[in-house]
Amino acid sequence: MTRAALLVLADGRFPAGGHAHSGGAEAAVKAGRIRDARDLEAFCRGRLHTSGLTSAGLAAAAALGHDPAALDEAADARTPSPALRATARRLGRQMLRAARATWPGDELDALARAFPRGAHQPVVLGLAARAAGLGPRDAAHCVAYETVGGPATAAVRLLSLDPFQATAVLARLAPEVDQVAERAARAAHDGLDALPAASAPLLDITAEQHAAWPVRLFAS
Predict the structure, then answer these.
(1) Which of 52, 53, 55, 103 is a plausible cystine mate for 131, CB 3.0–4.6 Å?
(2) Residues with pLDDT less than 50, the chain
(3) DSSP labels for the chain?
(4) What is the pLDDT of residues 132-188, one digit of tens each?
(5) 8 Å CB contact between 60 and 193
């Protein structure tokens, strides 16, 4: 394993398309559920322990070597919102392009052939971590951090929030990010049936509403 590879994969500048997505923050801001740093922290915490935990488990399982096709089916079953399924596959397609250019390998090539329209992003990220020589905990940490980092970055743009405050939110959530990543990695070792399936119905509902907006700052 290499710590530097983990930094590359987790870097917000990795060209995987995540910067164009708010993780539900845009809809939450419009609905008045995120107005300041305190609201942002509550939103990120809820996302981390629901959809974040679920996605981290899928990524950890992919990094561990579980069948990516079975994991993609599991991701579909855990994503009731058509808008979020479409977003996950778009992000997965972009992540796969970046990963194949960065860490070329047979497993990533096989995934591209099997899913020409894109596999779910957490599954792709897990295989990218595996190609980079990283393990399931590393993959889970990347996804868990991305779960809170995306909305925090989006809130800076959406609310003109002080970036120092947004970064402080991420720092306060760091212990919980570690806990979620560890829980997800343990579940991956126990097999597909043990993977988390935590849900966030409000995120699903607002994702469908957001997808119908004629004008929006973020893709999701």
Answers:
(1) 103
(2) none
(3) --HHHHHHHH-TTSSSSGGG--TTHHHHHHTTS--SHHHHHHHHHHHIIIIIHHHHHHHHHHHHT--HHHHHHHHHHT---HHHHHHHHHHHHHHHHHHHHHS--HHHHHHHHH-TT---HHHHHHHHHHHTT--HHHHHHHHHHHHHHHHHHHHHHHH---HHHHHHHHHHHHHHHHHHHHHHHHHHHT-GGGS-----HHHHHHHHHHHT-SS-SS--
(4) 999 999 999 999 999 999 999 999 999 999 999 999 999 999 999 999 999 999 999
(5) no
Distance CA 163, CA 153 (A): 8
C-alpha of 42 from chain center: 18
CA angle 1, 50, 75 (to 5 degrees): 70
All residues at 6 or more sequence positions from 47 whose CB lies less than 8 Å from its CB, including other chains = 23, 24, 147, 148, 151, 200, 203
Task: Tell me the torsion sign for CA atoms 106, 108, 112, 114.
Answer: positive
Rounded Cα gap, residues 55 and 185, in angstroms: 11
Nearest to 58 by CA among 187, 204, 146: 187
Q: What is the value of pTM for the model shown? A: 0.95
For residue 175, the tally of other CB atoms under 10 A from its CB is 9
The sign one gets for the Cα dihedral 188, 149, 84, 91 is negative
Q: Whole-angstrom Cα distance, residue 183 to residue 48? A: 12
Placement of tokens 């935990």 in the chain:
53
